[in-house]
Amino acid sequence: MTATKLAVAGAGGRMGRTLIRLISESQGAAVLGAAIEGTGSPFLQQDAGTLAGVGALGIKVSGMEGLGADIDGLLDFTTPAASVAFAEAAAAYGFVHVIGSTGFEDAHNSAIVRSAMRATIIKSGNMSLGVNLLAVLVQQAAAALDEAFDIEIIDMHHRAKVDAPSGTALLLGEAAAAGRGIDLAGHCLRGRDGQTGARPAGDIGFAALRGGTVVGEHTVIFAGASERIELTHKAEDRAIFAHGALKAALWGRGKPPGLYSMVDVLGLGPKR
What we know:
Elements: E1 4-9, H1 14-24, E2 30-36, H2 48-52, E3 61-62, E4 73-76, H3 80-93, E5 96-99, H4 106-115, E6 120-123, H5 129-144, E7 150-157, H6 167-180, E8 188-190, E9 204-210, E10 216-224, E11 227-235, H7 239-252, E12 258-260, H8 262-265
Parallel strand pairs: 1-2, 1-4, 2-3, 4-5, 5-6, 6-12, 7-9, 8-9
Antiparallel strand pairs: 7-10, 10-11
């Protein structure tokens, strides 16, 4: 198979530049086909390789007009609204869309589900292979331990992160809820303050910490009577998310339309 031709959305951001560097180091598995930025970006028309520090690649940063049928996949760590627009482009042109953006609301998710009827979309609250393996373990633990074990999820990120709980925390919460056979939306505890009363049995609690330059730390606690189980993942470099996204794009090439997750990429999801 020829090298997978990839576009990078948000090419001027930290993750975008990391993705461009990783593609340039992929030893022929992938090549950069387009670098995308929003209207008014100061990075428009700059060489994407120079911007990422890997030398000129002959690919100028452009708007969405850089996407087309010659692109095999798009790596997208942007915003929910932008991801919805990119999903529509994926449905129109037939490329694989890897979504690492977070902070989605129900309307965004519904729009992406519609696009996935015609496009191969891989979406995850965290593209790290380790985090997604953790999610599988959390689901298994939640299924094995009954409501005598309370579930609490703690996430910590750098001070500039704009959404809470993090997409990863919600990913882990969904895994725990799936293990318990419940709907997370109906059993979600956030933001305790004041006289809250006793903790309701069966709910899944979240706590978000923000400060410093922390890349990402997540712990899922199963707290029972006189014993506690803690499952933790600590991200030390944002490159782990880029590696996962690239793996997802390569995996998704040739897959039929549908909404996939990183658990599918790892081969741990249900057979389709």
